[in-house]
Amino acid sequence: MGLEEYFPVWNQLTSGERELLLGTAVKRTAPKGALLHSGSADCVGLFVLRSGQLRAFILSDEGKEITIYRLFERDVCLFSASCMMKNIQFDVDVEAEKDTEMWVVPADVYKRLMDGSLAVANYTNQLMASRFSEVMWLVEQIMWKSFDKRLAEFLLEESALNDGNTLKITHEKIASHLGTAREVVTRMLRYFQSEGMVSLARGTVELTDRKRLQALVK
Amino acid sequence: MGLEEYFPVWNQLTSGERELLLGTAVKRTAPKGALLHSGSADCVGLFVLRSGQLRAFILSDEGKEITIYRLFERDVCLFSASCMMKNIQFDVDVEAEKDTEMWVVPADVYKRLMDGSLAVANYTNQLMASRFSEVMWLVEQIMWKSFDKRLAEFLLEESALNDGNTLKITHEKIASHLGTAREVVTRMLRYFQSEGMVSLARGTVELTDRKRLQALVK
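The joint structure predicted for all components is written out below.
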């Protein structure tokens, strides 16, 4: 299957726009661990994922990282082409977390599409709104409300009480222990899972990286 | 002057779109202190500022606030109409910091414009990119690098050394004291100024709210 199966609003493009895309997008594979984009230093273009997994993160001067989102099959990475939008003034790094196949659409080509196609412009809006929401969630939950710490602490305590890494407990129950809503617990547990700290199954939470959970509590 | 002088891409609208806007936008005044928009509970519409000043902030369960941006004459507040974008999943509150005059464009009207006009869609993209950048800056500087604390500490120490609230010092010099770039210092000082903690003039920084600066350090 080609780019036409993966590009989000392909059906709403004109034939000229389709030709432009097919003529300029480059297929690329990246091995696990490869750094694909680094801050504002490069502007490699828009990534459209065919398979694999990418991680976008910000990096402090001291080398600390915060993952801001992950990308999977069919996802589109906008910030690797952020130079095309003059108002984006922050730096995001992107690395491959698994062996990844993708198309790279040059930034200037995507800009032309955005400037000429309502479908692409509004798709970009929705994409940015999603990423924005993920970052706002991180701001509120992790940096502000410290809910990640409280949840990690709770999981470690429960695990010590049960003498094992697998907790039989519902998200609902955790929520009532911590005085919050089930949705908040579910979302943070999924975040922990995406970071490899826990593994979720119906009615159970398995602690898969105690060290990182302990590091969160400190 | 009417909305046609203030709406950002007025010149690029069709006559039908202009009529729609003029026929549905409502002029509104808000006294200083008024809460104009509160989270996802309401979706009052897009604000286009004629005069005055608005503040957008997020609010924790415990009532703590973080200002995420301010709006001045001719600015547009998107998140008071966030219901029109299904991917925006965070809550922002908006209050008037000064007596404010504005037009309110109903969310569904703005959505129609965005879906029909390339100019409006791409303007919205740029607007969101700007706000996104401001939030990312806050994340990196304040919550992560704690540069606000270091700068507040430095200003208070200098003020104690000089025995006065007005420091004669350039941003360049502050930057070299703190081992950072001038731009970083300037931006944080402007943030402090917008929060009423300092007042800036050529070559001087006046401390106007020592208590809040001290609170930052703690």
